[in-house]
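DEPOSITED CHAIN:
***
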Amino acid sequence: MRRPKLPGCGKWLALFLLLGVAGFAVWLQRETQAMAEGARFYFRIDAATSLQKVLDELQGRKVVRNPSALRLWATLRRRPGTVLTGTYEIKPGMNADTLLAALRKPVRQMVRLPETNWSSRSANILEKKGVATAEEYIAWVKKPEAFKEFVEFPVPEGSLEGYLYPDTYDLPPLLGAQQVIRRQLKAFDTKVWKAFDQPKNLHRALTVASMVELEVARDDERPIVAGVIENRIAQGMRLQIDATVLFALQKWQRLTFKQIRETDSPYNTYTNSGLPPGPICSPSAKSVAAALNPAKHEFLYYVALPEGRHLFSRTYPEHLANIEKRKAALAEQP
């Protein structure tokens, strides 16, 4: 025997469901409302992380009101449930959709680390760009062993100076010094170690190349200056290269005779014979090529003209004459 239907039961059920949906919508809208506006900041994720965990962290930064509600909103909007590795620009006051869109667009920041830089100068660039502190970068440069499993070439002892390949890299804020160095060493692995068929005396070549890099502006003169360095070493002459003293001082400036005489450092090639202990900057591939294949000639001296070209000479009297030419050229400058 069938039970008689209660009149209006279906209508009441539909009404309750409608009220439930409406209440849920009101709750979801309230819990996903934008927070109070605040200053923009960068947020770093070092490995792919669940959206829920990221939203939990952003709640502590006063960006998200209710992480669970916003995660549910993301699901309803068919947004990804994972935030990929990267640095993200976040601003308190973003609405739900704007925030979720921001978490899909890692910040890109192209940073030039020049070949004329020694590591402390690159460290200052990285700090200004918010990539890493200068102190952190310098500390990791002094820990080559920490990176030996990451590269194929033999890492030096004591410092990675000279092995940090100069280039333009995508270095977003908060990336950290370790990641920067890994990218530089990876580039060195490809553009120097493998490109030059794994040179046997790598450290010596980089030391010569670094002096060439800081002394020469013209590509055609790089092998010539490398040849001068080799000729002076062969004859037991001191190299007397200003850039080595500047590296010892860790300052880029015009040298005084007092600084040349009194800078007590193994990198001072005016007071010490032979090569300095190691590279004084991160040389380009062109300078490395010059160091590995120096020009064969009899030059022992060179002097720079104002336009960047050098005058080369075999004897000291010739060198003195070239110095006078340099003085005359400087006098003609505006």
